[in-house]
Amino acid sequence: MKENRILLNTISSFAVQVMLTFQGLIIPKIILCYFGSELNGLISSLNQFLNFFTIVEGGVAGVILAALYKPMIQKDTVILSKILKTASKFLRELGIIFLGYSVIIAFFYPMITRNFDYWFVCSLVIILSISIFIQYYFTLLPQLFLRADNKYYLCNFVQIIFIGFNIILAIAAIQICAKIHFIKAISAAIYIIQPLILLKYIKAHYSFDEKCSEEREFLKHRWDGFGASLSNIVTTSADVVILTFLSTYSNISIYTVYYYIVYAIKGVIQSISNGFQATLGLEYASNNIEGCNKTFSICEFATNIVSNILYGTCIQLIIPFVLIYTKEIHDADYRQPLFSSLLIISQLIISIREPYIQMTFNAGMFRKVAKYSYIEAAINIVISTILCIRYNLVGVAIGTIISVIYRDIVTAFFLHKNVLERNICDFIKQRMVQFICMCCLFEISFLLNTSGISNWVNWIVNAIICIVVNTVCTLSVYFIFYRRETLNILGYIIKNF
């Protein structure tokens, strides 16, 4: 049962990331073709400013999830009811606060915009904020509950359907009315239905005491959760915010196009850790440290191998992909080899450290790791701001790399000392093998010479070749250093597929 749940969660998370990738490429391409790089950059900037509200959310999602594991194992309906009632009230309060925050952004942000009418930007902010409001007010809690019960695949299946609807409606909307407000309004409206389906499923399959009292004790850790999640907020949003003040909307558009691609790969890799998350949380909550260590090792090993293969392929093919993708766009220079390589390296580090950070969250160690998050965020903001003034896109990418390397190292030491009590030499060996493997893949990228790719057919053919070559290279390197683990992973894949 445990292996089936892990497999379902992983495969469905992977499918969600594939759909998000299509959505993240198709809809921005529509905006680029019909409205240009400036408006694409404006929308990306607005989304990041609105997403900064997750600082107010303060990592409470992780706190709620950690609180649900133990009563879920014990099937304690009373405690579950209290946690859900308290969390529901708290998230509703956050939703109301977010509306106020959106109004403030709608009022002040248009004052700093360049080349756009005040009311055009103001109304666009309101429309973009609707989908985020739905997330906090309706969708987040049922997703967290099903994740805690190791049924995250149900949320993923529903999300896949609605992402598909969103893509289809966006394409139809541009044919009906070529107005950005109309397209974004349609996108926001479709997601209102998603939480209703999840809530109906939960009511049909679980019973709760709706008249129970609140249990606010677990929420006392929300400020610790705030610190623990701050670095993720800064990593995903700070670069665009810094570019908004110190650079141009065209540079933001360039950053966003590259980031969509790399973020999609990160999402695919994160689907592995998402698939294991609930199992690891439930095992740790039941004090099964031996089983937790074994499951974590599999998750870590699989994440590292897949990260090498996919990011190695990305380094080899991202430039031709972007140039084909933006072939009709001539208002900005989308050939950015140095920036793209630095961005890929930063996201590679983020991906391979993800199992470590999720494990500290599963263990409820929010307060103890918060300081590392604060330091990472500070490093990122300070260095990115200083370097952006002179180096623009390259500057913010360097700031991100330095900050995520710091967090990777300190989190690994913390996890091995305080949670799983593993030998830190295992972590050092993992990173050394990772470095050797990526050096090999960089060398392969020069040998393959993919710079001459000029159409999608050639790109797809070269992508298949690169993935095969990179897979053989990665597995060969890992077989040398981790023979038994590599054979176990291959045996698991053959057994289940």
Helix count, DSSP H or I runs of 4 or more residues: 18
Strand content: under 5%
Low-confidence stretches: none
**In total, how many beta strands?**
0
Shape, principal axes of CA atoms: globular
Global structural class? mainly alpha
Kindly describe this structure.
This protein is an all-alpha fold and 497 residues long. It is built from 18 helices and no strands. Helix 14 (366-391) packs antiparallel against helix 15 (393-418). The two termini are 16 Å apart.
TL;DR?
By secondary structure, this protein is mainly alpha-helical. Helices cover 85% and strands 0% of the residues.
Task: Please name the defining characteristics of this protein.
single chain; 497 residues; mainly alpha; 18 helices; globular
List the helices and strands and how they pair.
Layout: H1 2-35, H2 37-51, H3 54-57, H4 60-74, H5 77-108, H6 118-148, H7 152-176, H8 180-190, H9 193-205, H10 222-246, H11 249-285, H12 289-325, H13 337-362, H14 366-391, H15 393-418, H16 424-448, H17 456-481, H18 483-496
Helix pairs in contact: 1-2, 1-7, 1-11, 2-6, 2-10, 2-11, 4-5, 4-6, 4-10, 4-11, 5-6, 6-7, 6-8, 6-9, 7-8, 10-14, 10-15, 11-12, 11-13, 12-13, 12-16, 12-17, 13-15, 14-15, 16-17, 17-18
